Amino acid sequence: MQSENGFYGQYGGSYIPEILYSSQQQILHAFEEAKNDPEFLAELNKQWQQFSGRPTPLTFCANLTEHFGGAQIYLKREDLNHSGAHKMNNVIGQGLLVKRMGKKRVIAETGAGQHGIATALVAARLGLECTIYMGAKDIERQYPNVFWMKQLGATVVPVTTGAQTLRDALDEALRDWSSSHEESHYLIGTSCGCAPFPEMVAFFQSVIGNEVREQSVAQFGQFPDRLYACVGGGSNACGLFLPFLDDKEVEMVGVEAGGKGLELGEHSIRLSHNLGQPGIAQGFATMFLQDNAGQLQETHSIAAGLDYVGVSPIIAHLAETGRIKMTYAMDDDVVAACTLLLKKEGIIPALESSHALAGAFKDAPNLPKDAKIVINLSGRGDKDIFNVAKAVEDETFPQFLTDYLASYPTTQNKGDKA
Amino acid sequence: MSQLATFIEAKRQNKPILSMTHVVYGYPSVEESLSWMEKLMEEGVDFIEVQFPFSDPVADGPSIVAACHKALEQKLDVDTCLSQLGKLAKRFPDSRIVLMSYLNPMYRFGLDKLAQRAAEENILGLILPDLPIEQAATYQSACKTNNIDPVWLVTPVTPPDRLAMLASQASGFLYCVARSGVTGHSSHEGKAKQTSLDDYLAQIKQHASAPMGVGFGIRERAQIEQLTGKADIAIIGSALLDAYNQGGQKAGIKLIKDLFH
Asked: Helices A197-205 and A207-220 meet at what angle, rounded to 10?
């Protein structure tokens, strides 16, 4: 979806400190050129196929379809990308752009860690220096991803300001970029931030929806009746939805994180139920969770990747115009949807993606049997093992952790052995 | 000429360089921040740049970020802040107050209302670092109507044609950012490109008829001596906050004396 001077209706734009003006302009021009350059697009496509494993399949879920007795359920398997999430589509694209701009270093922020991993992987592959900002609380929740980022050679910086989550990591990444923009590129992981980031990330992610268009026609002879995607920042939703924007018969549903409840601080619902308010922060205008004085508020979700205080200006605009229907799923329903997919289909979904599952599972029984729905499985759930084990109150997992920790070669033990 | 520019010109008759000190409203409490501003004006600082805190101050370094977050533990209100600043402005006619904040809290308050209320309280200038001039038509016209100055920033990496454009639209004074990066000491400081300040200021001077204030990273007397004769205002932010954090108002005043007297 093309913006008008960086705006999508009243959302988007470029509200950055003056120090970043030149860099922002450089990215704007580099992206404009690259997206129309057949050589760049061919290289992008090659990397998507040969490094990330595209195209990802469209998987029919016969057992779930039978279970609900309504719509026929398909999953777009972005979990099968290298690194286990759709994040890779965008990172490969921006990584190639960084090389094209001649910069040597990438900065990224990450919540769940999937964007951090994807950035660290691509930085390693392209020979770029890499610094990842991550909220100290998110580091606790997603340590396995942090471990891999470090092994890949990235510097992971814990952010201890504010609520110590994604929003604080984003502020810190912006500060780094302000100081280092001449040699560094801020590799934003979602379709947020100043122009052209929303459009650029959506462009790279649109490979998801473009593949669904072809695959759906090939597999069941028509476009899907309805699409579902979880919405944190909104990049996987943009990727799935935007290629279908002009196909009015295709309905689109975005699912936000309902968290623990509808009190401010307990959820990350920006668009459903008018819980967000228009605002301008972190480089762009969108719907933010904020108080009446315009201070951004803390958020919650069981899925670290969804607890962002703002949302893509593209999604905010499409929700406002009614093209996308927004809903939300509560933490408990998300865990239930996750375990149902595990048991019925043998697929381990990320908790982020499980929001899309929960939204779709609510509707599926009430839809006609010939309706086809596609749910974007944006990522795989390996990273969520600790949170899911806790949520399902698995009795043996704590014992495993205790035993494993006891057997872990501590510095003391190593000394003893030496 | 604007009220701010007139004030600067008059003051510069007797002073080689003017002082602008930065205070975070509400840090560590509203009362203490007001008392701190009062003390600074008693000391004769020419300007106080009052920062109304925002939860996500992306152009600021760690000292100011921490102060803003601490200040926001209290419920702060823009209108009350303006009223309180108005009272100070009345009591200290030899100094001027400039309000700085980020766009979102001011946008929620209403940019028209902000300009009007600021003028009522004798706040002569507004600084919003995340509002680019391209998006500022409404704000600029509200400022013009109320005869207050929207202060624009230029940086060492602002391209020449843009520098000329910003300088030509400058009113009050032009805020010249001394180096790439955020305010004060920061973990990112090592990455910031250092530029030749003299060349940079000379380049700005070619385009700017408005007075020039220089800030970001200024904490030593030698830096102020270097600016004297080339700029009109030296802006002290994080250094003053750091001194205040270490030794309260007394340490802050000592720093101001060391720097300017």
From this structure: 30
